[in-house]
Specification:
The chain is an alpha+beta fold. It contains 5 helices and 8 strands, in the order E-H-E-E-E-E-E-E-H-H-E-H-H. 30% of the residues lie in helices and 36% in strands. It is elongated, with a radius of gyration of 20 Å.
Length: 202
Amino acid sequence: MYLPQHFAITNPEVLFDLMQRFSFATLVSVHENRPFATHIPFAVYPERNLLASHMARANPQWTTFAQNEEVLVIFQGDHSFISPAWYEKHPSVPTWNYMTVHAYGKLHIVEEPAVVKTHLHDLVGQYEQQWKMDELPQEYLYGMMKGIVAFQIEITRLEGKFKLSQNRSRADQERVVAALEQSPHPGDRAVARQMKKSLEQA
């Protein structure tokens, strides 16, 4: 992606934190000579530099995974519209602040039932507080598993972009933070918190 240096984030801990908090991501590969994307949740394993997920067997994307030397997973974090009315100096134009991580890697299809079950268990555990996968009848569970294709992605490189008005003056950044903190939208306030953190570290 286009990545100006002042927006680049290289700290793996920061990148993996965003990936884990926004783990419903977009898997992009080349399928029959065209880009193909699927939106799916991922289990993120920072200590193993690994991603894991699955898709419906009826989804044709998986049939050409082997032809891709590298796939891309896009994790989109908080984002917000930025009004030029908030700036100290004019003229200015509107823009968008956002946080995203692009994870590139080599994809491997997982066929061992025990490994597939472990990945499913980990994925469910990220979101589910009441229902327990282990309580499913095993015959039913393994029957459902036949309808999916599970895979792992060995991460080869990460690109992080936190566009948070770093190209504006500190006064402008503080004015943007103040405006976003008053927003009724949680995503706007989350961007404000990240901007404040960045300003404190500057």
